[in-house]
Amino acid sequence: MSLGIPQIEISEIADRGLDLLEDAGCLVVNSVTNNEERTALREQLSGVMANTPVKTSDDTGQFYPGHTKRGTSLVAHSDIARNFVMHPMATTVCDHFLQPNCGPNCRYQLHVSAAIEIGPGARKQVLHREEDAFDYFPVPRPNMIVATMWAISDFTADNGATLLVPGSHKWSAERRPEPCEVLSAEMPAGSVLFWLGGTLHGGGANLTEDWRYGVILTYSLGWLRQEENQSLATPPDIARQFSSELQDMLGNTANGALGFHFYRGSDSESDLSMDEAATAQT
Ligand SMILES: O=C(O)CCC(=O)C(=O)O
Ligand SMILES: [Fe+2]
Q1: Which ligand does the CA of 64 lie closest to?
Q2: What ligand has the least distance to the C-alpha of 212?
Q3: 26 pairs with which residues across the strands?
Q4: Which pTM does this prediction carry?
Q5: For each of the chain's 282 residues, which pLDDT tens digit applies?
Q6: Which of 71, 124, 133, 177 is the Cys-Cys partner for 52 at CB 3.0 to 4.6 Å?
Q7: CA–CA separation, 226 vs 228, rounded Å?
Q8: 150 membership: H or E segment, kind and range
Q9: Mutate to test the pocket of ligand 1, among 70, 74, 125 (most ligand atoms within 8 A of CB)
Q10: What is the CA angle 7-9-11, rounded to 5?
Q11: How close is the Cα of 214 to the center of ligand 1, in Å?
């Protein structure tokens, strides 16, 4: 019998949420964002989404199905997205699942930011694990990625809610899910779905006339390469305006021994502010 997708309220994240996510490999947290925030987010990303073409080509081998849109670089474009990235609920989960595998001198980082719209007629996405990019490690892998999907519209079984295989983060590579083990993460707008990087999942098919709108934000161990190149997605002139915590999360500060730019014998200050100071001196 399938484990099901556990659902909790945000106040339960530390008490029950972490254990439920560990067991099922996925978890829905209800009532995280309000209507105002979601409206503002759509508005702030409207330019990005208008410039993102609907994918027209499609074959079953392609990772991104046709009739979908995937707008990226959200951190550069939206303060609401920036708040989502740094949300204490997300960092609580990442502190638990990722920080232990970062090592004492390293931290986790933003891995991907994208607004994903699934349109009428889209097929389902191939089931995958977010950690498949790191296939040097055999499955089941150590925790390397935590993924979140922020429901901006309602997510229903018919409109393309994310499909998940609870428990599959503990499976061997050979085990394939039975159809009854693949569940739709149905959730109202405002909820946030978490899944671990080893959990099989994919976008669902959209059988309705409406677009499903979700924001995917994923986090990875700081010693891995980011899937979305955050230094290019959010160029220094923009990133410099952000809090030092967000600059760290994007990877603009040396992470342990990795990723330095101007080395001044201290890792306590953002490389970008040092960059500015160094430029001012020349
Ligand atoms: O759109 C979704 O529900 C899932 C998307 C996804 O898993 C991905 O792009 O890696
Ligand atoms: Fe995915």
Answers
A1: 1
A2: 1
A3: 195
A4: 0.95
A5: 568 999 999 999 999 999 999 999 999 999 999 999 999 999 999 999 999 999 888 887 788 999 999 999 999 999 999 999 999 999 999 999 999 999 999 999 999 999 999 999 999 999 999 999 999 999 999 999 999 999 999 999 999 999 999 999 999 999 999 999 999 999 999 999 999 999 999 999 999 999 999 999 999 999 999 999 999 999 999 999 999 999 999 999 889 999 988 765 555 556 676 666 656 555
A6: 71
A7: 5
A8: strand 145-151
A9: 125
A10: 140
A11: 9
For 205, the token pair is 């098919």
CB 40 within 8 A of CB 11: no
Using only C-alpha atoms, what is the Rg of the chain?
19
Give the distance (Å) from ligand 2 centre to CA of residue 192. 15
What is the CATH code of the structural domain delimited by 7-232? 2.60.120.620
CA 264 to ligand 1 center in whole angstroms = 40
What is the Å distance from ligand 2's center to 142 Cα?
A: 17
Å from CA of 126 to ligand 2 middle: 9
Domain boundaries, the chain: 7-232
Q: Which of 5, 116, 168, 196 to mutate to test the pocket of ligand 1 (most atoms within 8 A of CB)?
A: 116
